[in-house]
Amino acid sequence: MTGSDASPVRLTTSDQVTLTIDVPPGTSVVDAAAAAGYVLPGQCRKGTCGSCHATAAGQYTLGPHSPAALPEAAAAAGQVLLCCTYPTGPLDITAPYTRSRVLDGGPGRREGVVTDVVQVAAAMVWVRIALDPDDACGAGYQFDPGQFVEVEVPGDERRRAYSLVNTGNWEGVAELLVKLHPGGYFSGYLVDLLDRWPTGARLVLHGPTGAFGLRESGRRPRWFVAGGTGLAPVLSLVRRMAEWGEPHPVRLFLGVPSPADLPRLPVLAELVTTMPTLTVTTCVEHPDPTWAGLVGTPLTSLQAAAAEHTGTAPDIYVCGPPGLVDAVARLAADAGFPPVVAERVLPT
Q1: Span 177-222, pLDDT tens digits
Q2: 30 burial class (0-12, 13-18, 19+ CB within 10 angstroms)?
Q3: For the chain: N or C, fewer Cβ within 10 A?
Q4: What is the pTM of this model?
Q5: Contacts from 166-171 at CB under 8 Å and sequence distance 24+?
Q6: Other C-beta atoms lying within 10 Å of the C-beta of residue 135
Q7: How far, in Å, CA of 315 to CA of 329, rounded?
Q8: E-strand spans in 33-190?
């Protein structure tokens, strides 16, 4: 796409691949990239989810967006959401993901059958989907750990985004963690499946996409901070490390509101048993008499760990609500740690 009134945009990924896109007036970077055949990581396309976060230098205007997805201070420092970034002249964009996270042509679409829906906490279920073989991709389901999919019930165009819990595989399996919201559209669907299981219900998955993922930085310790279903992409990252036998010291800081919200996940117990470099710290914010562990949020235990830490500064990965992400980012900066790798969990 070219034109004398189009703005030239250079988007450079973290592995130093540069994409050049001509953006017509009044068009967002995300839409212009899609027209040029590049699907950038993102979800909502209206500035509410934060998935298309990047840094920009040049001439642009920033359209309406949620301050939870892009805080005012971040926008003032040149950070943007590409779905609501409108170039008005030459623009250089630095993306926090590799070229492999940019899809060529369009997001994938896979359909499959739900084989398991297991309640793992008071308001959380684990869902396993066996995907149909695909002409282009074969029987397997390959994706980068940390990515998410948009889930659709056949015959209903509404979609909901969920991070994948597992890793890419040759069996064609997708695993999700879903929080059950009273009156929620997809939550209600899953509760209905629980009540009348088994059903052979089918789902459509769009994607995978998303920028959240492991960064290569030698053998720095890796600390993962998760709140609620923010555990899903974190588990995917840790599982990939276990599969590859990566030697980094790993700490997982998990926080839940109450003891009833603690997820009973066999895969997490297996990681603790089989991954000698992994330490898991769990905090409950509102304990009851049955709880004898740590009280507080993941930030509580993270602060204690940061104060005691010596040696190489850790890379911190955080996935959860905006307040948790912002607090962890401030803690990392105050401690002199590298900038955090973050995924904000927001309603869209």
Answers
A1: 988 887 777 777 777 776 665 567 899 999 898 889 998 888 899 9
A2: buried
A3: N
A4: 0.85
A5: 166/236, 166/239, 167/143, 167/236, 167/239, 167/240, 167/243, 168/140, 168/141, 168/142, 168/143, 168/144, 169/140, 169/141, 169/142, 170/139, 170/140, 171/130, 171/139, 171/140, 171/141
A6: 5
A7: 11
A8: 38-39, 53-62, 79-81, 85-94, 103-104, 109-121, 124-131, 148-152, 159-163, 173-179
